[in-house]
Design a protein that fits this description.
It is built from 41 helices and 25 strands. By secondary structure, the chain is an alpha/beta fold. Among the domains are: about 260-435, Alpha-Beta Plaits (2-Layer Sandwich), CATH 3.30.70.2190; about 520-635, no CATH class; about 640-970, no CATH class. The chain is globular and about 100 Å long.
Length: about 950
């Protein structure tokens, strides 16, 4: 019987201002078209339009519109294809946004009926209550769609156990170019004419088809005509959108193993790992995944990944491993699964191995493998590497020899790459350091591709092992198949698509492998010298944008990236979409106005500059920095939006206002007086639907100066049992603008805590600032001036070697990370090295006092909203350590940015989405929280207050209250 499921596979919040308009209407604006110009491959095709249907009728209307205009048609799911088979010059039909319902799920039959836009993980989640799952699981399972997986015959890491998408397909319904729907099952097609033609095609050529096709499981290049003889539906899998638009599928579900274990085996070389993989195709082994040893070095070169892979075998013992295999084993009990993994490890000779059964440890290890597709696009030395010869497969017993020959071929062309993939089935993914920026480099690329195709064919292998041939390899099928077989492929295409409407240039009558490269020399028609150093990208803004290879991690609801996409589901609001639009700007063909472009401005408007992409993107695309660069040039010599002046210059305005007696009180009163506050918001370019912030009546520096003066005549610091705390030296508390001019409570608490712990605190009295608000509004020249001034003010403190303690995470990260990219001054470098967070400074002291019994841990709870910049580029573990030592049991908000994002949520037109972002997780959990709510970011505390009415605390305030409760400091 069918079980109830969620009505949509991938629901989206859609606040009114950002909801889709004219859902079935074709979007022809250049912003959208540019965002869809590439997938995860190296090719570029700017479509004439994009449509996001929700129903079969809307797909039919879109096809009719395309035919009237004479446009070609390509279907698209998550756009994670690496072969260039999800792009086209005509109409792109994106099924991922709305056409994504799970129509039924039958646990008794082990089947599900789905629309093409259902995300793989959503189907797996719907099946999980019945102890079932969908077997194919590519590394993009959190955002790829079932329709795209079937179209490309995707497999994934568990294909040893569950096979390809074709092997898990029961039936499939296609809409043809004339609007007819046809359903293909195992027994045939419900259209008599098509059914008869397919049977005649197979019956008249069975010998050749069975000789050339279906030789080993990962031979997926070309059409799967061998299935026509016994299961016709499966022949549709791998057709790459060239015969119709999938509107409905029935797919198999498989039982979830009762228990599993993960054995990770380390080998001296990647060839040893490849040779061992074939021997490990044993009963109970569900995965045999391989990685080259240099992948770990590439991973560790990425932002925030310096310690990645510490628990990998070999690494934990200080042994250099040239390759690893991930072997997942199953069993009815955990002991059985573990024993099976140990037997697997004992089957081959390794230099080390580890068997893991803890779910969290297994997830951490799998993240290394699943991030490979993005990780290896940047080599350890920062060099670029690209897909295209990245999906070849050979019978697994030949994999080691094939890899040796492939490496030799790469050496001859002076190319580098890091292999990973499904070694147990002979499939290897490889991103290679092709040079697409010169004519000679493109010619070498063409030569390598031709020789690589001949090489894999010499091993009876396949150009593609799961991703399809696309524009990457279709023109090379002449190396793999006879002319007669290629003609059969053409006949198959024409049976469904006689007018050659669907995805032209793919599989048959193919585009050349060098046609329409996204990174060819023409990409740099429009280019300027950036303000940022872009030190990891050779000082080149285009190189930085090209970091985005398109693996689409930014389209997943997992993690914090990308907040605006998680609300709208619109490709232009994904990090990838924005990268594609910037790339088109540099090319100057489709987007012709350069930095004056309204299309780029539109795409970047909803970027919150949260910096989640700077760490969560596998290649560390930093859209916040790209946005700052664009805005800097976009408004050069022009009047800016009022919010850029009001919010961008807030630090200096606040500092000046606090130098004038009574003015801070008047400003604060005006900001909260009906009528006046609305007028101020309008003049300042702010959204009038949300309250303005508070303005401190007394600045931090003023409070600190008076406190220091009074401390000379009175003891203001108490310690446990009146014993004096040890002298821990002098620290400089950074007077960021938020804690100095707007809400001084956290800074006051920090001073009390630091002094109580034995530190002498100093605070600069003059104006200092990290430049964050100028940076986020793209006023980079002013950011540099502010940093230069700050460096001069801070020089005496730096000369004394004093640590600088930051309270506001965004400012702390600006000092430690971004400032050095904007200035090469020695003092800025010294300031960055000296700066640390409040929690990083006090964590070891708190642990020391607890271990000594001076402080007694409590037993309380807290909900923590980690600031998005700290989550991305800082270290939240320091705060977690402080809370754990004090007996505070912490739970965390997992969705990242609170939604206010500094000035962004206050800007005109952003309030609705800002508050919708809070409703994802933050607001509901704050409303339910019974303990403290902790948020170190001023914006986060403001968002929580305005969205829930609750007051959140900085961790300094929480620590101060705990210490005061034990008589350790005076408190307030």
């Amino acid at each position: 019987m069918s079980a109830p499921v969620h009505p949509t596979g991938h629901p989206r919040l859609a606040p009114g201002a950002y909801a889709r308009q004219s859902r079935a209407g074709i979007r022809t604006d250049m912003t959208t078209r540019a965002a869809y110009s590439s997938d995860a491959g190296i090719f570029r095709r700017v479509p004439r339009g994009v449509v996001e249907p929700a129903t079969v009728d809307e797909v039919r209307e879109a096809l009719a519109s395309a035919r009237e205009r004479g446009w070609s048609i390509v279907g698209r799911g998550g756009g994670s294809s690496v072969a260039g088979n999800a792009i086209g010059n005509g109409l792109v039909i994106d099924t991922s946004t709305h056409f994504n319902r799970i129509l039924s799920l039958d646990p008794d039959r082990g089947e599900a009926v789905v629309e093409p836009g259902v995300i793989c993980d959503d189907l797996r989640a719907a099946a999980a209550p019945y102890h079932l799952t969908y077997g194919p699981d590519p590394s993009t399972h959190s955002r790829c769609t079932i329709g795209g997986m079937v179209a490309n015959n995707a497999c994934g890491s568990h294909s040893v156990a569950y096979g390809t998408a074709a092997q898990n397909l029961v039936d499939v319904t296609l809409m043809l170019a004339d609007g007819r729907e046809v359903t293909v099952t195992a027994d045939g097609c419900d259209d008599p004419t098509i059914d008869r033609a397919l049977r005649e095609l197979y019956d008249g050529n069975a010998d050749r088809i069975n000789r050339e096709l279906g030789r080993f499981p990962r031979q997926v290049s070309g059409y799967g005509l061998h299935y026509l003889g016994h299961d016709m539906a499966k022949a549709v899998a791998g057709s790459e959108g060239t015969i119709g638009i999938i509107t409905r599928m029935t797919v198999k579900l498989v039982p979830v193993p009762a228990q599993k274990a993960l054995g990770v085996l380390a080998f001296e070389t990647v060839y040893d790992a490849a040779a061992a993989a074939y021997a490990l195709r044993l009963p109970g082994v569900a995965t045999i995944e391989g990685m080259g040893g240099d992948l770990l070095e590439a991973l560790r070169s990425k932002q925030g990944q310096g310690n990645a892979g510490a628990n990998l075998p070999g690494i934990r013992k200080g042994i250099t491993a040239g390759g690893w295999l991930y072997c997942e084993t199953t069993g009815d009990t955990l002991d059985e699964a573990r024993a099976a993994a140990e037997r697997v490890a004992g089957t081959v000779t390794t230099i080390d191995h580890v068997v893991v059964t803890d779910a969290a440890e297994m997830r951490d290890l799998w993240k290394i493998r699943e991030s490979s597709a993005g990780t290896v696009t940047r080599l350890p030395d920062g060099g670029e590497a690209w897909p295209n010869w990245e999906d070849s497969a050979v019978p697994p017993q030949h994999l080691a020899d094939y890899l040796r020959d492939l490496y030799a071929l790469m050496d001859r062309y002076d190319l580098r790459g890091i292999p990973f993939g499904h070694f147990g089935e002979g499939c290897v993914h490889l991103r290679i350091s092709f040079d697409f920026q010169s004519t000679a480099g493109v010619a070498a690329f063409r030569g390598f591709m031709q020789e690589a195709a001949a090489l894999v064919t010499s091993y009876d292998g396949s150009l593609s092992g799961e991703h399809g041939d696309g524009r990457a390899r279709s023109s090379l099928l002449t190396e793999m198949y006879s002319p007669e077989m290629l003609r059969l492929f053409e006949q198959f295409k024409l049976i469904f698509d006689p007018d050659r409407v669907f995805n032209p240039g793919v599989l048959v009558w193919p585009d050349e492998v060098t046609d329409g490269l996204r990174m060819d020399p023409q990409q740099r028609k429009f280019e300027i010298t950036p303000v940022h150093r872009f030190s990891r990208d050779k000082g080149d803004f285009v190189n930085a944008v090209n970091r985005c290879v398109g693996v689409s991690a930014c389209r997943s609801d997992e993690g914090a990236m990308c907040p605006s996409f998680q609300i709208t589901g619109d490709e232009i609001h994904s990090t990838r979409g924005r990268s594609r639009i910037l790339s088109e700007m540099f090319r100057g063909d489709s987007i012709v106005d350069g930095y004056r472009s309204s299309e780029v401005e539109e795409a970047l408007d909803l970027c919150l500059s949260c910096k989640a992409c700077a760490s969560e993107c596998p290649v560390n695309v930093d859209m916040a920095t790209y946005k700052a660069e664009f805005l800097n040039e976009h408004y050069k010599g022009r009047i800016r939006p009022a919010a850029h002046y009001m919010m961008g210059w807030l630090p200096l305005l606040g500092h000046v206002a606090h130098r004038i007696p009574l003015l801070p009180r008047l400003v604060d009163a005006a900001m909260h007086t009906p009528g006046i506050s609305t007028a101020l918001a309008k003049v300042g370019g702010l959204d009038t639907s949300r309250p303005l912030i508070n303005f401190a009546h007394q600045s931090l520096q003023s409070w600190f100066g008076k406190r220091r003066a009074s401390s000379r005549s009175a003891q203001t610091v108490q310690t446990v049992q009146t014993a004096q705390a040890p002298d821990r030296g002098t620290v400089v508390l950074w007077p960021d603008s938020f804690n100095s001019s707007l809400g001084t409570g956290p800074a006051r608490a920090a001073v009390e805590v630091l002094e109580a712990l034995g530190f002498t605190v100093e605070i600069p009295d003059g104006f200092v600032c990290c430049g964050l608000t100028w940076h986020s509004t793209g006023q980079l020249a002013m950011t540099q001036k502010v940093l230069a001034h700050t460096a001069r003010v801070m020089r005496p403190y730096l000369d004394r070697g004093l640590p600088v303690v930051g309270l506001e995470p965004s400012c702390t990260v600006m000092l430690t990370d971004e400032a050095a990219e904007l200035s090469d001054g020695a003092d800025i470098a010294r300031l960055a090295a000296a700066t640390r967070s409040f929690s990083a400074l006090v964590a070891p002291v708190i642990r020391e006092l607890v271990d000594a019994g001076t402080l007694v841990p409590g037993d309380t709870t807290a909900l923590t909203q980690i600031h998005c910049h700290e989550r991305s580029l800082g270290d939240p573990q320091d705060s977690a350590d402080v809370l754990a030592a004090l007996g505070v049991h912490e739970s965390r908000i997992e969705t990242g940015c609170c939604g206010l994002a500094g000035n962004w949520g206050f800007e005109k037109g952003h309030a609705e989405m800002s508050l919708a972002l809070g409703e994802r997780e933050l607001f509901p959990k704050v409303r339910e929280a019974t303990g403290e709510v902790i948020a170190d970011g001023f914006s986060c505390r403001t968002q929580i207050s305005q969205g829930t009415g609750r007051t959140a605390k900085h961790i300094a305030e929480v620590v101060r209250d705990i210490l005061a409760g034990q008589g350790y400091c005076a408190g307030v």
